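About this split. The held-out portion is used to measure sequence recovery: a designer receives only the structure tokens and must propose an amino acid at every position. Recovery is the fraction of positions where the proposal matches the reference. Here is one held-out target exactly as it appears in the evaluation file.
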């Protein structure tokens, strides 16, 4: 139901618990969520094996009709900083939010026409109020490798809707990723939440790289498998190692996090993160790349200064920031010993979210980037 005054706005609520007994964990989350009478609850958890049971327990204790949506994660983030072995839940009170869900399944088969029809039907059925803010949240199975097509389809079907999201995470080497909708576990699928609210909503995007003068051309790739096989007509891992100045045997997630590959689209650089080196000397990426693409070698800069400056530019302290932050950014910050700094920032700006295998913003799929939605109460200083 629409509120009539800013003072009546019910802001999102969040709760973080350290996983143990699932029934006990659900009870602690419900103590925060249930009084808010949420229309929608997002939940992210590791280890991911606990998530389906946790979602089922949450549904039992929430008002009828409340949607519970979530995904496996490569770690969580909250006012406690970066976490593992926790569950983070965000509730959107029905007093200020209204949502509807659409499952976009069979990602590997690319049923783009069916996705377009479903998205347009959802928007027509939703009948959004022009006086309210409209936005979308997308959670994608991170092992689907179809985010580029999916977000382009969303942007084409709903060009006027601000959509933000993340790819479900898990172990860096063996992906056991999934999304969940009302306790149904879905693989090779995505969940799109169309939401309207009385709150002011601002989108956020930040990465900490600059493009160096080192350029390269992709001379052989397998875009469907996100495999980079040759750079400059040389084996990809060997040529990359030469450019960053380390032996091939010393390539690691930390090296990849410090020296990402960048592509220029529309005057802006986007990260094409490297997940791992393959046995045949290739590089497995977290986004698709085509043969013939020109890339620049990126270099990590300050991890926190520009990030906090972006947050300070918000017109008010957010009631909550729903955050999708790449696992490789987390690895870089932890390696730099910035855990306490990040915890302080996350606490002051009311962060809640998860570490992803990729981020979506403005019709683009990207890596090693922080994207988020800041929810602002007009009466909050």
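Reference sequence for scoring:
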């Amino acid at each position: 139901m629409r509120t009539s005054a800013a003072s009546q706005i019910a802001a999102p609520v969040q709760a973080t618990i350290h996983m143990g007994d699932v029934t006990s964990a659900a009870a602690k989350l419900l103590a925060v969520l249930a009084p808010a009478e949420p229309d929608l609850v997002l939940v992210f958890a590791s280890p991911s094996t606990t998530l389906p049971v946790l979602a089922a327990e949450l549904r039992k204790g929430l008002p009828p009709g409340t949607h519970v949506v979530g995904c496996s994660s490569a770690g969580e983030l909250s006012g406690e900083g970066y976490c593992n072995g926790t569950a983070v839940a965000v509730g959107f009170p029905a007093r200020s939010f209204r949502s509807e869900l659409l499952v976009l399944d069979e990602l590997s088969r690319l049923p783009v026409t069916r996705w377009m029809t479903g998205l347009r039907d959802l928007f027509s059925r939703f009948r959004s109020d022009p006086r309210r803010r409209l936005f979308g949240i997308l959670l994608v199975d991170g092992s689907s490798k179809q985010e580029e097509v999916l977000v382009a389809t969303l942007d084409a079907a709903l060009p006027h809707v601000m959509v933000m999201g993340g790819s479900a995470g898990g172990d860096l080497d063996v992906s056991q990723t999934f999304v969940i909708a009302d306790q149904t576990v879905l693989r090779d699928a995505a969940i799109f939440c169309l939401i309207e609210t009385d709150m002011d909503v601002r989108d956020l995007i930040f990465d900490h790289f600059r493009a160096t003068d080192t350029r390269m051309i992709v001379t052989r790739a397998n875009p469907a498998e996100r495999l980079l096989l040759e750079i400059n007509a040389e084996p990809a891992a060997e040529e990359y190692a030469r450019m960053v100045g380390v032996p091939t045997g010393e390539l690691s997630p930390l090296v990849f996090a410090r020296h990402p590959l960048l592509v220029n689209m529309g005057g802006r650089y986007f990260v094409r993160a490297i997940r791992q080196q393959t046995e045949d000397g290739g590089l497995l990426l977290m986004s698709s790349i085509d043969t013939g693409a020109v890339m620049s070698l990126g270099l990590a800069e300050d991890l926190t200064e520009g990030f906090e400056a972006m947050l300070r530019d918000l017109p008010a302290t957010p009631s909550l920031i729903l955050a999708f932050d790449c696992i490789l950014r987390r690895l870089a910050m932890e390696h730099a010993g910035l855990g306490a700094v990040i915890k302080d920032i996350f606490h002051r700006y009311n962060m809640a979210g998860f570490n992803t295998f990729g981020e979506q913003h403005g019709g683009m799929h990207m890596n090693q980037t922080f994207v988020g939605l800041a929810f602002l109460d007009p009466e909050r200083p």
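Annotator remark: DSSP finds nine helices and 26 strands in the chain.
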